[in-house]
Each structure stands twice: as C-alpha cells, then as structure tokens.
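Query structure, 310 tokens:
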C-alpha cells in the first residue's frame, strides 16, 4: 500500500470516499442493470459491491463445491492481474468477469471488478450437471441462469473502456488524497516543531528547569508543552520546575487548565513546581475560569522564583 509522510501504510479505503463511490456504483447499475460492480482491497476484502447476480450470490457462493471454484477463480485472476490494463476471464462456474488492477503511486492497492455476465449462449448441460452435483433446485438454478445478462463482445468492449476511465479516476483521486494526507501530516509535524522552538525548556543549574511561556497559548501548544516538559523532568531528574508567564500574551480557559495540569503532573514526578510572572490579564483569566492553582507557589518575577529554589 502507499505510505503517508510518517511511513504509515495507507489502504484503498483511506484513499477514496467509499460512501460516495458506492452511491456512484449503485447509480451506474440502476442505469445499465447489466454488470455487477465491486471494489476490493489488496487483501480481497470487499469494500463496495452492487448488483450481484442471484446465481452467484444464492448458489455459487453458498455451496462448498462452487465456492471453491470462486476462490480458485480469484486466485487465478490475481496471478494474471498485471498482464495488461485489465483481465477478462470465464470463471470455473461458467460466468464472465473482468478485473482492473488499481495502482496508486506504483503500489497495488486493490481491484475493481465488473461482470457476472455471459458473452454467448450458456452450455445448459454444464449447468444442469452442476445443479445435480451440488444438489441445487434445478428449476430455480436455471431460472437464475436466465437472469444473467447476455452481452455481445462489442458491447462489453465499450463497457471495458468506460470502466477503465472510472478506474483511472479512482487512481487519480486516490493519489490526490494520498498527497493531501502526506501534506497535512507534514504541516502538523512542522507546527509541532515550531511550537517546541517557541517554548524552549531551559536548564538553570543542575536541578532547575525554567519553561518561559512567550506569546499565545492554545490547547495544541499546551499539549506540546506538557509532553516536552514531562520528558525533560524525567530525563534530567529536575528538583524544581518554574513556569514563567511573564511573556505570555493571552490564554483561554481550557489552555490555562492544561497549564495547571502540567504543573500537577510534574509534581507527580517528584519536582517542586512554581509559577512566576503572572500578568494581570492572565490572572483575570485564571480567576474567571475558576482555575484552582492548589498548593503551587506563585512569585511575581522569575528572579524571586529562582531565589526560592536555592
């Protein structure tokens, strides 16, 4: 499968809008009422399917003898899948199918199927013998056979051209979605890097860490601060952690609560936590949000906070 920027494998289900594609296939089947249509991932898991013929759904897929032929048919088609832009074959149960490989960014991600049709008059003796072998109700089985569309070769060639265009559209859409996913992940990674650069963790002495907050703190930035600070406290065995708010422009209630939770989590690691440099507008946010600072010491300036750590 294709990969995101983080190296995570992306499946066909992640690269296309399955509900909309299924609705499109349903509309196509209502218009033609001939071809069964299906989309499968690279592991042969069905993602979308419409218009399956009764002879396949109610007979061939229900008996071990004919079901085994279906499985063998899928195996054979997978072996021949890349012999050309599509593969047309007659399955061992006597039905015609056509398979198109879906390749996105040089990676095989799935198969688009059309078919469950006939291109010539069926061999009734073959189907009667199969009904007897499997114990099918002969009349019901042959009635299901009569419902299978008969499609001349010229018409099926036009259908192949049409559905090849549809497969190409799926490939283009999947490639665009893959690139969009990778781009969004890269933007998020860059945003996290910028948030970390905007809030360095300073080691002052052997056992004191200072986290100077500059600018605006939103929930995303508060989350990054928490992750980085807790890692640094554990790695450096810090005894004191100072959260300096002198340069903080503004903070919303949720982010303020997150900052307090950061300090409490840091205390659980054994460090003494204190806050310095609370501005009047930040103090108003803390009071307005009824945010309890608990037993966290508060100092007016970073200088006095550092002095308390000696």
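Result returned for the query:
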């Amino acid at each position: 499968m294709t990969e995101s920027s983080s190296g995570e494998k992306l499946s066909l289900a992640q690269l296309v809008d399955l509900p909309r594609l299924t609705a499109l296939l349903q509309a196509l089947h209502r218009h033609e009422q001939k071809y069964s249509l299906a989309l499968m991932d690279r592991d042969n898991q069905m993602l979308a399917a419409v218009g399956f013929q009764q002879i396949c759904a109610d007979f061939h897929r229900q008996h071990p003898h004919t079901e085994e032929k279906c499985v063998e048919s899928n195996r054979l088609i997978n072996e021949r899948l890349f012999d050309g832009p599509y593969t047309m074959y007659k399955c061992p149960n006597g039905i015609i199918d056509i398979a198109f490989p879906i390749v996105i960014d040089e990676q095989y991600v799935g198969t688009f199927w059309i078919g469950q049709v006939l291109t010539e008059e069926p061999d009734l003796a073959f189907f009667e013998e199969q009904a007897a072998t499997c114990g099918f109700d002969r009349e019901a089985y042959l009635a299901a056979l009569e419902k299978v569309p008969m499609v001349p070769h010229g018409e099926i060639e036009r259908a192949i051209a049409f559905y090849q265009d549809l497969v190409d559209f799926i490939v283009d859409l999947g490639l665009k979605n893959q690139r969009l996913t990778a781009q969004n992940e890269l933007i998020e990674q860059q945003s996290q890097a910028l948030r970390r650069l905007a809030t360095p963790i300073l080691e002052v002495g052997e056992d004191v860490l200072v986290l100077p907050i500059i600018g605006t703190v939103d929930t995303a930035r508060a989350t990054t601060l928490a992750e980085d600070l807790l890692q640094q406290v554990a790695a450096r065995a810090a005894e004191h952690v100072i959260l300096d708010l002198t340069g903080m422009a503004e903070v919303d209630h949720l982010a303020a609560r997150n900052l307090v939770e950061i300090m409490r989590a840091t205390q659980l690691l054994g460090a003494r936590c204190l806050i310095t440099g609370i501005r009047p507008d930040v103090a108003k946010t803390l009071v307005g949000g009824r945010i309890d600072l608990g037993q966290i010491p508060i100092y007016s300036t970073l200088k006095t906070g550092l002095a308390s750590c000696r």
